[in-house]
Hints:
This protein is α+β, with helices and mostly antiparallel strands and 138 residues long.
Amino acid sequence: MTDSRFMVLGVPDKRPTIMGYRKGKSIILEVLSDPPYARGISFEFTKHEYFVFYRQLLEMAQEIWPDLVLKEITGAGNDYGEYYDRELDNDGSASIGAEGISFWPPAPHLESNRLYRFTKAKIQTYLFDLKKYADLKV
Length: 138
């Protein structure tokens, strides 16, 4: 097992830095900024930045789950829009649009910098939609 990590660097006055890393059989995304953390955090991306974020997340997911297949959302089990973070005992959510991504972190009141914890089912649909909404040809 490798200690995989990636970063999408922030842009001053535009967005903070996102860090992703493997934790067991999941992928954690965190925001690298100082508290207090906002309830909702959005990241606007250029086409190139969207591509880099997608590729880094996809590569990490394929390291953890070599049989990964991107899929459409079919129900609550694989819908990344909402999730329960057992470790933080709170709900979080994510959304994707043509110009960027947004997260509603599970526990900003606990001063946790976690944006999202992806399981295999949720990363399959998140990457599927990320590719679609960013109109990525990969």
